[in-house]
Amino acid sequence: MQKIAILTSGGDAPGMNAAIRAVVRTALHKGIQVMGVQRGYAGLINGELIPMNRSSVSDIIHRGGTILRTARCPEFKKEEVREKAAKILKAYGIDALVVIGGDGSFTGAKLLSKLGVKTVGIPGTIDNDLVYTDYTIGFDTALNTVIDAIDKVRDTSTSHERVSILEVMGRDCGDLALYAGIAGGAEYIITPEKGFSRDELCKVILEGKQNGKVHNLILLAEGVGGAQELAEYVENVTGIETRATVLGHIQRGGSPTATDRILASRMGAKAVEVLLEGKTSRVIGIRDNKIIDEDIDEALALERKFDDELFDLSEAISS
Predict the structure, then answer these.
(1) What is the CATH number of the domain that holds 69?
(2) Active-site residue flag, 127
(3) What per-residue confidence (pLDDT) applies to 171?
């Protein structure tokens, strides 16, 4: 193993820079050259590769986003485009590719590996929707961003005696809503895995008012529906002033937490070690606080299991 490349793909996540730093410095420590691919798979097929050294990743561990930048690349689904990418990597003398991203990015890495490119994936996504790993890089930071927003919204919600509905990211995964709802003391948590009844929600709000509750905080995962539409429905049914707050891309930004910085550093170093062991088509994860590597096909094929026990806890301690 003489030279590797690294790219970030898909949605950015806090901690990606810490992972880049760990990959680059671990590889250099092992005598391996590193090339950085700019703008993900789109940059790869355009030949946007730059050499990286220790100073390339100085003072980035605390920065959000990704210094390599990222971009969507739907054309990478075409085999001829992937073949072009494989040829570019070969032309640069690159022995392996490290991909930091989510399930879409990993799918790209899996398909490249079938063309003879050695690949390893590092999970970087705020959604925490990769089943094989307990946590993904960026989830903890996004979670703390949401909790900070909850604390601020609660102040004004209490002052005006309102119902406040906060919509958070997560697509088909409700982890961000569930964890933030519990940590933020929400009265009601709505996730795509569990669904909900609008009438049941209104009943809970009205019962709370009868018991002297002056405000309600509802956490809504984006995969279930829109916060504004739900707010209008709740206000019409209950007669209580209801406001919607969509946190949006603020959840992706910001300086990563210590937890994400350490997780990214551990995973980045592990990715290089896996490649040096001669493995390919692997993904890095954490399970029971141990950094693991797993076959990419097996990892992506795992069926997601929602944490029903944690959801039951949220219902028991809410309101």
Answers:
(1) 3.40.50.450
(2) yes
(3) 81
